[in-house]
Structures are given as C-alpha cells and as structure tokens.
Amino acid sequence: MLKVLPRKYNIERALLEGLIKFGENNYANAFQMIHRNTRMLYLHGYQSYIWNHVASDRIKKFGMEPMVGDLVYKGDLKDVAFKEENRQSSANGSLEGGSTSSRVSPEVVTAETLSQYTIHDVILPLPGFDVQYPDNEVGMWYAKLMAEDGLKLEDLKHSNKNYALPGTYRRLIILPKDLMWQSYMYSDVTKELTQSDLDLLQKKTEPVSDPDGTIKALKIELSLPQSCYATMALREILKIDTSAAYQATLNHGVMPDRSPTAMVVKEMQTKQQSALGQ
Q: SS3 for 215-269, per residue?
C-alpha cells in the first residue's frame, strides 16, 4: 500500500506507517504518528462541528431570544479561546490541582432572570469534560449528536491526555464592532476595489467609485473576536453561498474570472463533469 501511495498524501502515509509499526488495530498510537498540530485540528474540528449543529438548531427552533435553561455570561470571552489551547495541552482527564484561570462560570437563565438578558449574552459550550451544558432541550442535543457518531460525552475525558478535551464556550451570536460600509459603482470586474496590505505600504491611492459604473459593490469593514469569521457574517447579510466554487461563478457572463483560485475551481469542476460523463 505504501509503495503505491503518493508521498504528497503525507497524513495518510503517516497513519499507515503507524498501523504497520503498532499493529493494524492500534488506532490510538497510529494517530500519534500525525503531527500534533494536525491532530488537534481534527479534534477541534469535531468540537466545532457539534457546536455549529447545536447553534444552528437552537436559532432555527427557538429564535433570537434567550430562554429558560440557557447559559449566559456577561463577561469578556475574548481571551478564553487563546487560553484554551494551553488547557488542551495540559489536560489529563482531570483539572484538579491545575490552573483554571481560563474557566468561565456561566449562569443558568431562570424565569426570574430571563428579562435581564439578551441573545448576545447566550453562550454555548464546545463539547468537553469540563464545561456546563444548557439546562434545557438544547443541552440534550450534544449527547444525541455525538451518539450518532458512536460517542458519549464521557469519552471526552480520555485517559490519553492528548485526546482529553476540557471544552470551552462561544457566544451564540456575536455583534460585530467597528462596522463601516461604503458602496462602489464600477464596470471593470478586474478592478481592485480594496487596498491590500502591500498597497497600503506603497501608499497607493484608495479606489474610488465610478459614477458611470454599471455594477454596484458593497465594501464592509468590521471587527470580530477570535474564532469568528467575516465570511459567515457576509453570508448572513447576503444570504448567498460563500464558498470559493460559488464565488468563482459570480462574474460568469460578464468577464471570466482568471484569478488563480478561480482557475483551480474551474479545473476541479471540469474534472467532476468529465467523471460524471464516463
């Protein structure tokens, strides 16, 4: 198998080499053959996968208002994600005797305190063994989603410290700061409408709107905390697909997008169409 597997598939090769070295059923040690940073991407990616499902269903089913049983926190979460990496590194299935400086102590919304909070106070946990879960239907969704993958919440308190996940919290809704916007009119789809860092260093003139332009663009500037992404904010504003494949099609019929990204996407689409035609 290794002889026919191209070396560019370094992760797959590392796993196979681990299975050969430690035994075909020793998945834990084989997984250790992957670089730690890459391994953590998979673990954190699964946490985010569960969180995103819960967050989407929470808003879809219960809307944009806090409810009884929600977890809320009025403090600043901006440094929790940064500190969480240190907790993930030192986690050994238990935090007794260790530093808990990054821990958040959320409050549970009751009928008496419901009026004191807004949706921006609501937080949801990334699944872990050292977090609190909502005291309502939302809290039960975590166990249900993980059960679909053959996992239990208790599994996150792993005996192998490399796979022990304490968890942390993220706000359900983030309100962007420093929001500024400006509309541009233009006709040439190859024209740059924003300044790159290099443009700023070279003190190039900022693009201006063309009063005779036939296409309108909206330039938005905003600040978001760690683990929040402007592409998702734009998706909520525009209600369109923000994937590279879709974005590469937006100039279709006006002028072909010949950027490197668009060319790669086009090549992938051509290969997929060819495969379907066979």
A: EEEEEEEEECCCCCCHHHHHHHHHCCCCCHHHHCCCCCCCCCCCCHHHHHHHHHH
The token duo for 11 is 């992760």
Q: What is the pairing mode between strands 122-126 and 215-223?
A: unpaired
pTM: 0.73
Name the burial class of residue 54, with classes exposed (0-12), middle (13-18) and buried (19+) by CB atoms within 10 angstroms of its CB.
buried
Length in residues, the chain? 278
Per-residue pLDDT tens listing for the chain (278 residues): 677 777 788 888 888 889 999 998 898 889 889 988 898 899 999 999 999 999 999 999 999 999 999 999 988 776 454 445 444 444 444 443 333 334 678 999 999 999 999 999 999 999 999 999 999 999 999 999 999 999 999 999 888 888 889 999 999 998 889 999 999 999 888 888 888 889 899 999 888 899 999 988 888 889 988 778 888 888 888 888 877 777 777 765 555 555 565 566 667 667 766 766 65
Place of tokens 């809320």: 72
Per the DSSP assignment, residues forming a β-bridge with 221 are: 180
DSSP string, 62-86: HTTS--TT-EE--S--TTHHHHHHH
